[in-house]
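JOB MANIFEST
job_type = single_chain_structure
chain_count = 1
residues = 145
[input]
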Amino acid sequence: MSNRKGKARPLSCCTARRWTIVCGTKPSRFCAHTVRYDLRGAGRSGDGEGPFAHHDDLCVLLEALGVDRAFLLGISVGGKIAIDYALRYPDTVRSLVLINPGVSGYRWSDQFLAQEGDLRRLSDQGLSDLAWERFLQTWVEGPFR
């Protein structure tokens, strides 16, 4: 999703769903030209084919929209993508705003990976409400908070 208002500098929000809450769907004085998009396989985006990197997908998207330099915002996985993008394409980044970003190369504990697998299985079985409840328990009450 891309909004334009005048000649505003572009603001790219990595992962659309979370940032629609922050920026809304209409241009504002703070988010005059926003680019919010879904990662491959999420929301309205297809899975794509072959190997890929999310930061390269972001580059292709911004180039297609004619964005030379952008302010990047990212939360969690979106933050990881913004960091990777800035490292790979530094001349196209005006600034980074990161909220609880992930970091490429980080090794999650076996306990965490097992819990993530359990959540995926619940979601795959159509039990997304239960998966979401357990996800929240993990981060609000559990060992990963």
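[summary]
The chain has five helices and four strands.
The helical segments are 16-23, 54-64, 77-88, 110-124, 128-140.
exit_status = 0
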